Structures are given as C-alpha cells and as structure tokens.
C-alpha cells in the first residue's frame, strides 16, 4: 500500500485486479465458475458450517494460487519475452502448484459431497 493511501483506494485497486484477472485469464474464469458451482451445491445439500468453511477455504486457495501463477507468468514474460529454459521451469513450478491445489480441492469436495449425495 502506498503511504497515505486510503483503505477504499486500496480496496478499489484490489477489486480492479480481480476484475482484470477474470477478463484476461481463462483458467481463472473457469475456476470461478467451478467455485460458484460448489457454492450452489453447498447450499442445495445443506452442508454444515464446518463443511462450508472447508469448501470456501479450498475455493479461495485455488483462486489465490491461480492469481499468483498468472502474476508470475506475466512478470516473467515481461523480463524475458523470448523462450528461456529457466523461465519455463519457473512457470511449470507455479502451474504445478495450481494443479496440486485443484486436485486437492476435487478430493476435498468428493469427501464432503459424496456422503450427502449417497444418503
């Protein structure tokens, strides 16, 4: 935060960042849609507050990691616009972090939703 910058200004900047990511990043949009589907399913199934909390943290973790991944990729493209093996490794690592969180979120969703769907 810039010194003497108001909270509302900081909030507007952060909100603009989320809107920009939604407009520019296909994966972020897809993950937002998946997160919204999980939220709707949560409400329909009448999950417990703990189950809802776990799913919300999981959704926010995946979305946050996707934002960080996009940030890393854009920064690396800026400083090294040409293909470079080290840049590829860094991008692959950051994409791998998103993949791990997405796989984990699917497992968590299955563990929470399946007992409700089976009964």
Label this structure with key terms.
119 residues; mainly alpha; Helix Hairpins; 4 helices; 87% helix; 0% strand
What does the model show?
With 119 residues, this protein is mostly helical. The protein has a single domain (34-118), classed as Helix Hairpins. Helix 1 crosses helix 2 (26-45), helix 2 (26-45) runs parallel beside helix 4 (85-118) and helix 3 (49-79) runs antiparallel to helix 4. The chain is built from four helices and no strands.
Summarize it.
The chain has 119 residues and is mainly α.
Radius of gyration: 17 Å
Q: Tell me the number of helical segments per DSSP (H or I, 4 or more residues long).
A: 4
Q: For the terminal residues, how far apart are their CA atoms?
A: 49 Å
Q: Label the overall shape.
A: globular
Q: Please count the beta strands (DSSP E, at least 2 residues each).
A: 0
Report the biggest beta sheet as strand number plus sense, adding barrel if it closes.
Answer: none
**Might you state the CATH topology name?**
Helix Hairpins
Indicate the structural class: mainly alpha
Helix content: over 70%
Q: Are there runs of 5+ residues with pLDDT below 50, and where?
A: none
Give the CATH architecture.
Orthogonal Bundle
* Percent in strands: under 5%
Number of domains: 1
Q: In CATH, what is the class?
A: Mainly Alpha
Mean pLDDT: 95
